[in-house]
């Protein structure tokens, strides 16, 4: 932080306590909502690639970046997904411009020579450690899912993450060949009005979630 | 997005494909690095509370927001943590201005009347579902860990997340009374120069991590 008041393209080093402006903090966190109702405006592949080009830079263990995306776009694919989604969520999958199946790739080690060249020799060790790979893939994909939600908002898109579905059935339906493991789905688009009929839920205070030693 | 070129306090709706300026995208994702070397500048409790006041708004299942923080600040606490950290990471824990033990609270359901008042009656059901609560707490804490990393950067802080430690020993050392489950530690401070001696690692392309159906 500097002692001067500087607002430069969204970086505001004097708006304590943040280095980004209030507008950016609102867009990414404070005013963002989980969206259930989207307009018909499409979400392009270019937009999704741009979202990935942000989230991919977030840190993961050994840079394994195991998050994978199955982009469900066509009416046929949407119906195939919807049949595995809980009743209360199904209509939203059918109505969203696009739904992302966020999955973990347990074969992340195939990419170690590119992602972690100084540890490329560990690819052979990982090959024999299927359970460790499943755990690492899931853990780091979930961390990347956090980056994904923020990156979608940074790209001007709205997100509606949903966990109520049969993940094993989704894997069998879509991911058997790749071997990816689905974790969650995220509806993506542009909000229709407020985009949700829920009142904003409360959060715990810092004092309730922290201890200092 | 609008068709006008508007740059307003860091929101740039014409800088396709992002709704934030290049400077914000760089700060939060593209130019951010995992930092190992920090200056002596302290990190205050007020700064950490402000970071939490961003990350807390990120979505979680049923709004359970199970992420908890043990803030390791004193030399004594730092030594207690360091003895459970792998050799290669220990010096960084001892040198960082502050280290966060990021943990999951399996008793998130105690807060359901506040966090999800329309589902407050589920608190009783969750009480009998310890395994489900452990899974939900861990999954959603990891997603919130992604929000935490971005929120630290949005607050002008640098982060050095590390996974190489004995989590069970950390739980016994610090978290037995609370019952929280540690997931990862994050060193926090202000980078000393570049803050890392690693070259920037490569990432996979969107085409390598996605399929469209």
Automatic annotation (TrEMBL), chains A, B:
Keywords for this protein: Oxidoreductase
Top-level taxonomic group: Bacteria
Region forming the signal peptide: none
GO MF annotation terms: 3-hydroxypropionate dehydrogenase (NADP+) activity
Domain (Nitroreductase): residue spans on this chain: 31-190
Xref: InterPro entries: Nitroreductase, Nitroreductase-like, Nitroreductase_HadB/RutE
The EC number(s) this enzyme carries: 1.1.1.298
Protein name according to UniProt: Malonic semialdehyde reductase
Originating species: Cellulomonas alba
């Amino acid at each position: 932080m500097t002692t001067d008041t500087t607002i430069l393209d969204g970086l505001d080093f004097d708006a304590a306590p943040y280095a980004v402006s209030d507008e950016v903090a609102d867009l990414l966190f404070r005013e963002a909502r989980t969206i259930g109702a989207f307009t018909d405006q499409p979400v392009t592949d270019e937009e999704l690639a741009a979202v990935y080009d942000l989230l991919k830079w977030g840190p993961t263990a050994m840079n394994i970046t195991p998050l994978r995306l199955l982009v469900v776009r066509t009416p046929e694919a949407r119906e195939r997904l919807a049949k595995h989604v809980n009743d209360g969520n199904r209509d939203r999958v059918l109505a969203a411009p696009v739904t992302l199946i966020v999955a973990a790739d347990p074969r992340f080690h195939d990419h170690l020579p590119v992602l972690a060249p100084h540890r490329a020799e560990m690819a052979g060790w990982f090959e024999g450690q299927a359970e460790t790979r499943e755990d690492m893939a899931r853990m780091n994909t979930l961390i990347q899912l956090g980056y994904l939600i923020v990156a979608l908002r940074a790209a001007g898109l709205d997100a509606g993450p949903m966990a109520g579905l049969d993940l094993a059935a989704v894997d069998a339906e879509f991911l058997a060949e790749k071997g990816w493991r689905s974790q969650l789905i995220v509806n993506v688009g542009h909000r229709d009005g407020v985009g949700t009929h829920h009142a904003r839920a409360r959060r715990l205070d810092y004092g309730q979630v922290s201890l200092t030693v």
